[in-house]
Amino acid sequence: MGRKAGSLYINPKKFGAVGKPCMKEMLAFLGCLSLNKNNDDKCVRQKDLLLACADAQKGKPKNPARTINYHLQRLGRDKFF
User: Fold this and answer.
1) How far is CA 28 from CA 22, 24, 46, 49, 67, in A?
2) What is the pTM of this model?
3) Which part of the chain is the IMS import disulfide relay-system CHCH-CHCH-like Cx9C domain (predicted)?
4) What's phi and psi for 16, nearest 5 deg?
């Protein structure tokens, strides 16, 4: 199932895997929290891995030309002007 923007068809499955760089670390941390009844003292290793991944992502600039919203806005501007 996709969305239509005018005559443009967008496949959301194509963009589903993009932009999730720390997902494995987050899932490991949340799984540890659920096993330990939300006691994060026992999940120090997973928490450190998640914070290290998040810190590594801060320096990387996002490229707006690759996002689907950028292309939708670009195509929408051409219609109205």
Assistant:
1) 10, 6, 6, 9, 27
2) 0.53
3) 18-56
4) -70, -35
